[in-house]
Every structure is written in C-alpha cells, then in structure tokens.
TrEMBL record:
It comes from the Bacteria. This is Helix-turn-helix domain-containing protein. It comes from Streptomyces violaceochromogenes. SUPFAM superfamilies: Homeodomain-like. Keywords: DNA-binding. Residues 39-58 bind DNA. Pfam families: TetR_N (PF00440).
Length: 222
C-alpha cells in the first residue's frame, strides 16, 4: 500500500511548508522557554493552526521536541567535527575572513562554525542544552546523546591544547572542557540578545576577546 502525497495544510498552505513553520516556531519556543514551559497550544497559536492539527502532524509534545532537536543536534555536531578537522594555525587570532575560518586556531574555527550553524535560529542552542527535560525520557536521552558527542570533541580539543602547554593532568582537561561549554553557552546567549551581530562579526569579536585575555594573562604572570 502506497502513502498518498501530502495534501495542502490549513488555509491553502502546503503541508510541508506548514510543518516547516511549526518546527521553526517550536524550536524558538523550546529554546526561549525550555521544554517544561513550552506548550503545544502556544506553538499552534503562533503558527495559526489548531492544536489537534499540530498533534496530527507531530504527535505529542515530546515528539515535537524531538522533531526540533534532531536537525539541531545533527547540524551542530557536524559543524564542530568539520571545524576541528580543518587546518589550525599558531598565528595570533585577529579576524575570521573566510567561510571556513581556514588558518585560524581551532577554538575560533569551532566558534565560527557554531555561530554559522545557528544563524537564523540562535535559540536552537538552548533546545539542545535544555535543563527542564523530563528525566529518563526519550527527549532527555536524545539530547544527552548529542551533548556527549559534542563534549567528547571538546574534550579532545582541550586535552590537545593542554598538552602543548606541558600539562597532562586529566582534571585540568576536564575543567577546561567544562569551562569551554560554559563559554559557548554564554556567547550564544549574548548573541541572541544582539540580533544584528553576524556569525563573522561574532567570530571576529571572539578573536579580539581571546587576544585581550592572552594579554591580560601575560601581564598577570609578570
């Protein structure tokens, strides 16, 4: 038995287009409000469809969350992996000029890749890093899968960086990876509140902040 082609959604909008609208709005709602505070009714109202229709398209609230999470997680994981396999440079970070940040230090390439992957849907970061997901739910397990994969990449990068300084202490590496995750979250949160900042502008800003931090640490050690 074959599945009939998708028919038009509400008010003449094709179903595929309506589903895209739902996912865009739901991703923003989950990212801004968190899973616990987001309601299917609120998403339906913003899109302009009925709650039963939204359930018909996506199922439960958890199913809707997963439909938002999976493309976000895949996109961010791919962005980080790609950035980490690019050529690094020991040069002083001053700016990011190319789309792939070629020749820039790994940390800046990763940040630029994250900003680029989130551009147009910045709240999506907080869909992945949602602290209100129900424990032991499919939603929590799937989000944890993506976070672990990204954290594993971060752990590799921070351990490699520490080795260049002569440190092989696993607790140093763990602490630095933890700090890196917090830094990424803080930068994305700042970026959300500054919508005029492009991914390239954010990467350049991070380069300047890193350079300032390096200067500050150098002065403190003298």
């Amino acid at each position: 038995m074959t599945t009939p082609p998708s028919k038009a959604g509400t008010k003449g909008v094709p179903r595929a287009a309506r589903e895209r609208q739902v996912l865009d709005v739901a991703t923003e709602e989950f990212g801004r409000r968190g899973y616990e505070a987001t309601t299917v009714a609120a998403v339906a109202t913003r899109v302009g469809v009925t709650k039963p229709l939204l359930h018909h398209y996506f199922g439960s609230k958890q199913d809707l969350y997963l439909a938002c999470l999976n493309p976000v997680g895949d996109r961010l994981l791919h962005a980080v992996r790609t950035a980490m396999t690019g050529p690094a440079s020991a040069a002083q970070p001053t700016a990011v000029t190319g789309p792939a940040s070629v020749g820039q230090p790994t940390a800046l390439r990763v940040l630029h890749a994250l900003f680029t992957a989130l551009d147009g849907q910045r709240e999506a970061w907080f869909v992945l890093y949602d602290t209100t997901l129900p424990p032991d739910s499919d939603a929590a397990r799937r989000a944890a899968y993506y976070r672990r994969a990204i954290d594993d990449l971060a752990a590799t990068g921070t351990a490699d960086l520490l080795r260049t300084t002569g440190s092989s202490d696993p607790l140093d590496a763990d602490a630095l990876a933890y700090a890196w995750r917090g830094l990424c979250t803080a930068l994305v949160r700042w970026w959300v509140s500054h919508p005029d900042e492009s991914p390239e502008a954010m990467a350049q800003r991070c380069a300047r902040l890193f350079a300032a931090g390096r200067t500050l640490l150098t002065e403190a050690s003298e």
